[in-house]
């Protein structure tokens, strides 16, 4: 089955800095890569996603890049703000239709 | 935050008891999922259902059971066979089998064993 590795597990940045979270996947049949944000005690919510026929996608301060050859994808957050503090999960799905999640990255943005 | 609901929000269980967590959705989604979340472990799949009256085991199904008698409902029973059930449980749904479709999550149930 699919295996998704996510790094780092914790990321601490100063307000205004950029943050990058990286994920690798194992199943070459995976074709959809969503990113979820989970604030403390709340449900995960989709913030951005990318399909395998696209190399990069942007939405205001967040962007996701995908390298199918290397089987890795990354989340980029620019001009971080304290409200960006949360746990971020990457996921991959495709061959089995069942998403596999990474272990999460706790992002802390210091004012 | 309508669409998919879970109850109760907090649940306390004595050892040896079975408890059932509720998950309901009014999004007309075909697929529903149960995940367990522990600190540092991410989201681990317990059971999933792609269609009514059918469900499949996920990665950590031992000690859990589910039913899918109605499209909108997917309850999870945590049995006494689950040795370490204290965790945050999330239910999710998705519109169909396509891997491109977003999952929507419920607000979660926090289960604590006393």
* End-to-end CA span of chain A: 41 Å
> Uncertain segments of chain A of ≥5 residues (pLDDT<50)?
none
**In which range does the helix fraction of chain B lie?**
under 10%
Radius of gyration of chain A: 13 Å
The geometry of chain B reads as globular
Largest sheet of chain A: 6 strands, mixed
The first-to-last residue Cα distance of chain B is: 31 Å
Query: Uncertain segments of chain B of ≥5 residues (pLDDT<50)?
Result: none
Q: How many β-strand stretches of chain B?
A: 11
Structural class based on helices, strands and sheet pairing of chain A: mainly beta
The residue-averaged pLDDT of chain A reads 94
**Measured on Cα atoms, how large is the radius of gyration of chain B?**
13 Å
The assembly state of the depicted protein chains is: heterodimer
Describe what this molecule looks like in 3D.
- The complex is a heterodimer of chains A (111) and B (114).
- Chain A contains no helices and 11 strands.
- Chain A is mostly beta strands and 111 residues long.
- In chain A, the strands form 2 sheets. In chain A, strands 2, 4, 5, 9, 10 and 11 form a 6-stranded mixed beta sheet that branches. In chain A, strands 1-3-8-7-6 form a 5-stranded antiparallel beta sheet, with no helix packed on it.
- In chain A, a hairpin with a 6-residue loop joins β4 and β5 (45-51).
- By secondary structure, chain B is an all-beta fold.
- Helix content of chain B is 0%, strand content 51%.
- Chain B has no helices and 11 strands.
- Chain B is globular, with a radius of gyration of 13 Å.
- The interface between A and B is medium-sized, with 25 and 23 residues.
Any descriptors?
heterodimer; A: 111 residues; mainly beta; 6-stranded mixed β-sheet; 5-stranded antiparallel β-sheet; B: 114 residues; 7-stranded mixed β-sheet; 4-stranded antiparallel β-sheet; 0% helix; globular
């Amino acid at each position: 089955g699919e295996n998704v590795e996510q790094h780092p597990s914790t990321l601490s940045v100063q307000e205004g800095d950029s943050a990058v979270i990286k994920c690798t996947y194992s199943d070459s049949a995976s074709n959809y890569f969503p990113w979820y944000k989970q604030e403390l005690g709340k449900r995960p919510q989709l913030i951005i996603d990318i399909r395998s026929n696209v190399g990069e996608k942007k939405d205001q301060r967040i962007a996701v890049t995908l390298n199918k050859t290397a089987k890795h994808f990354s989340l980029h957050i620019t001009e971080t703000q304290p409200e960006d503090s949360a746990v971020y999960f990457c996921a991959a799905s495709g061959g089995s239709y069942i998403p596999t999640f990474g272990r999460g990255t706790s992002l802390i943005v210091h004012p | 935050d309508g669409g998919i609901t879970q109850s109760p929000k907090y649940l306390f269980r004595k050892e040896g008891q079975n408890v059932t967590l509720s998950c309901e959705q009014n999004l007309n989604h075909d697929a529903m999922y149960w995940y367990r979340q522990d600190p540092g472990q991410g989201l681990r799949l317990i059971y999933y259902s792609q269609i009514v009256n059918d469900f499949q085991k996920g990665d950590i199904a031992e000690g859990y059971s589910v039913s899918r008698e109605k499209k909108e409902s997917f309850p999870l029973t945590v049995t006494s066979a689950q040795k370490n059930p204290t965790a945050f449980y999330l239910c999710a749904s998705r519109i169909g089998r396509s891997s491109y479709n977003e999952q929507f999550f419920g607000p979660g149930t926090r289960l604590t064993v006393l």
